[in-house]
Write a structure and sequence with these properties.
By secondary structure, the chain is mainly beta. The chain has helices at residues 83-91, 93-96, 104-107, 176-179, 227-235, and strands at 2-6, 10-15, 18-21, 56-58, 65-66, 75-77, 110-112, 117-119, 124-126, 133-135, 137-143, 159-167, 169-170, 186-194, 205-210, 213-219, 245-247, 255-256, 262-267, 271-279. It folds into two domains: 2-64, no CATH class; 75-279, Alpha-Beta Complex (Fumarylacetoacetate hydrolase, domain 2). It is built from five helices and 20 strands.
């Protein structure tokens, strides 16, 4: 399945003729009272779409695409998880700003604020325009069920699906989580492709262009720590919940964007997403 959120928090399944609106299926979600569970209710109950009916079909070009995950409990991000990106980060002061840069085994996974999440239709709104703001395209993994201490051999059983992730970054001397967590600095989309459609997340082409010029291109087989090992490592520190998002790292070619730019990110099997850049 390809599950999209769009317009005023509607949901539907993406097919060749557009989005089949199945917002009515949300009535099947369990009701909760305070304190609310630490999970995204839709991601935890994707089976509601199995017998849902379509109310209408909406052309893709007529909707504003939101993040396929409405309420991620946490966003876990893997830094310097491609060897060539590690090399460019070490070589470019505009990237490292004197910070200690080490491969992922030494740098560890960091967290981004869940308030930074937007969909591709909402766009990126840059802050601190006096500093360099960079694009970083990544494979995003959406967790589908609760788990802790998950072995890599069973890690993919805990995945709900995949989407494109943009880990937007302000360059500077501060901690990563601060510079990568402003509003709109985590773009997820264009929709969630459920795990059965991507049996091997370790062999996917991904890329991004800015104003029609390609900036980054790689394959997830080049990841230093692949998806199962990332899930194993993250779950050794945190309990993972449905709707948690794991950004797997960006390849070489990161670079600045400015208000007025248009980014187009692509991920094999998932598709493309267009993201406009503006000033906050």
């Amino acid at each position: 399945m390809r599950i999209a959120r769009f317009d005023n928090n509607r949901v539907g399944l993406v097919q060749e003729d557009g989005i089949h609106d199945m917002t009515g299926a949300l009535e099947q979600l369990p009701a909760h009272r305070h304190p609310y569970p630490r999970r995204d209710a839709l991601i935890a109950n994707l089976d509601i779409f199995e017998n849902a009916t379509t109310s209408r079909v909406v052309p893709l070009e007529r909707v504003e695409l939101l993040s396929p995950v409405a309420n991620p409990g946490k966003i876990m991000a893997a830094p310097v998880n491609y060897k060539k990106h590690l090399e460019e980060a070490l070589a470019d002061k505009g990237i490292h700003h004197g910070n200690l840069v080490g491969e992922i085994h030494k740098a560890g996974i960091f967290l981004k604020a869940s308030s930074s999440v937007v969909g591709c239709g909402e766009g990126v709104r840059l802050v601190h325009l006096d500093r360099r703001n960079d694009h970083e395209v990544e494979l995003a993994v959406v967790i589908g069920k609760e788990g802790r201490g998950i072995p890599a051999s069973h890690a993919l059983d805990y995945v709900a699906g995949y989407c494109i992730g943009l880990d937007m970054t302000i360059r500077g001397t501060e901690d990563r989580s601060l510079r990568k967590s402003p509003d709109s600095y985590t773009v997820l989309g264009p929709w969630l492709v459920t795990a059965e459609e991507i049996p091997d997340p370790g062999n996917l082409e991904l890329s991004i262009s800015v104003n029609g010029k390609e900036k980054q291109r790689a394959n997830t087989r080049e990841l230093i720590l692949p998806v199962p090992q990332l899930i194993e490592w993250a779950s050794s520190f945190y309990t993972l919940y449905p709707g948690d998002v794991l950004l797997t790292g960006t390849p070489q070619g990161v670079g600045p964007v400015r208000p007025g730019d248009v980014m187009v990110a692509s991920l094999e099997i998932v598709g493309d997403m267009r993201v406009e850049v503006s000033a906050a």
